[in-house]
Amino acid sequence: MMRKTLYSLLPLVVFLGPISGWMPSFLGTAVIPAYEREEASAARRRADSAIQGVLGRISEARAALKTAPADSLDSVTLAVGDVKGGAVHLLKLSKEEFMRQDGEVSAVSSLGTPLTVRVVRPNYVNTAVRVTDAAGQELEPLVVRYPVEKEGRLKEVAYYTSAHPAVGSPEVSDAGGEYVRESLNEAAALLASKGIKISPEIVDVAERLCHVEHTDHKRFKTEDSVALFNEVRALYALNSGDTYRYSVSTAGAGGMVQMIPPTYKAIRERNPSVGLKADFVEGMRDHSNALQAMLLYMQDTWDTLVENEEVVEALRTGLATQPELLAAGYNSNPYKLPKYIGRGGAGWRSLIPEETKMYLRIYSAVERSLDFDDRS
User: Fold this and answer.
1) What whole-number distance in Å separates Cα of residue 298 and Cα of residue 295?
2) What radius of gyration, in Å, describes the C-alpha atoms of the chain?
3) Per residue of the chain (376 residues), what is the pLDDT tens digit?
4) Long-range contacts of 37-44 (CB under 8 A, 24+ apart)
């Protein structure tokens, strides 16, 4: 149903319970030594500095691109910078060159510097490249300006940052994970303010799905999964509200949550008081709107599933879990799950579509590989 092609430190409270009716005042709170607090604070400052440094260079690159001569429909302009800072170089390439797997292009930048661009992974606005100068020194590919066309006409101009190694870091990936978490918290809070309660467990699963939905199945089979998940997180950090803005599947699933138009329409009609955007494309491009739709759909799916006796029994006996049913239902038709369980029993997973089997594998890997602070 929803596949894509594109793309502070608080005291640790430990309740020990009463000891013979009395407990010393110092028990119950683990006091963190001052040096550990200082180290944690310093590490946080370094991480914030690293993230702000990258985002600052990206902002500068975008500004340079917005004042540069426009591209034709057949060309793109790439903004790159020295990893130590300095001026931004602009490089113009044809879309054909930009989208050629393992392609290598030599060009002179806007500053008169000969540079070599190697295409690591072509993926439209999210194409990953590496850029080096004549001495072999690597530069940061900061932003691509990509004319998006429809029926031979300019539809819009995309500005996007790919999660390539030159701008990726653990700090950037962590920031992306935090962006997803906070965005979901805000979406759940908005729904609550409108009188709609989303269970914490649903939001927890949705947080994993925001990673699973954008993990390429083919790459998952051949590449390091942790690196893939961190790449997804890095994209969220580097592009924030524009992340996956241009990601549309052959089935028409779009944006951050990869929802298809009929599903979105049904959610809007079922929840008129929420005020979801009427236009599907705009609704999917708005992360807050899209995440509210995602949470509404998942909560409704779950409420319907647990009305089925076979599902309830499967949950009670451990034949199935809430996360895997929600994940399988999000990727395929959730209302077929009770039939799979009824027919397959312990082997119900063998009856689900092949793509959904892979989807559950990726979900398990996300759960196993990344740190999440469960709301439940």
Assistant:
1) 5
2) 24
3) 443 334 332 222 332 233 233 333 333 444 556 655 565 455 556 556 668 888 899 999 999 999 999 999 999 999 999 877 778 999 999 999 999 999 999 999 999 999 999 999 999 999 999 999 999 999 999 999 999 998 999 999 999 999 876 666 889 999 999 999 999 999 999 999 999 999 999 999 999 999 999 999 999 999 999 999 999 999 999 999 999 999 887 778 889 999 999 999 999 999 999 999 999 999 999 999 999 999 999 999 999 999 999 999 999 999 999 999 999 999 999 999 999 999 999 999 999 999 999 999 999 999 999 999 999 8
4) 37/9, 40/9, 41/9, 44/8
CB 153 within 8 A of CB 102: no
In whole angstroms, what is the distance from residue 135 CA to residue 371 CA? 40
Among the listed residues 208, 211, 258, 217, the one whose alpha carbon sits nearest the alpha carbon of residue 230: 211
Tokens 């740190």 belong to: 371
Backbone angles phi, psi at 189, to 5 degrees: -65, -40
Per residue, what are the HEC states of 333-364?
CHHHHHHHHHHHHHHHHHHCCHHHHHHHHHHH
Q: Give the three-state DSSP class for 354.
A: helix
Q: Which domains does the chain have, with CATH numbers?
A: 53-160 (no CATH), 170-369 (1.10.530)
| Residue 367 to residue 365: CA distance in whole angstroms | 5
**What are the angstrom distances between the C-alpha of 195 and each of 190, 271, 274?**
9, 11, 9
Positions of E strands within the chain = 12-13, 29-30, 75-82, 88-94, 104-108, 114-121, 128-133, 138-150, 153-160
